[in-house]
Amino acid sequence: MMILRDLDTRKDVKGGTSMGHHSDKPDQLNGTSWVALRDYFTLWLERLELFYNRRFEDLDTKTTLALTAADKAVNKAETATEKRFEGVNEFRQTLADQASRLMPREEALSKFGNIEKDLNALDKELQTLREQRSGVTGRELQRDQNRQDVSTKQSWMIPMFIIGAIACINIILNLFWMLKK
Question: Residue 8: pLDDT above 60?
Answer without folding.
Answer: no
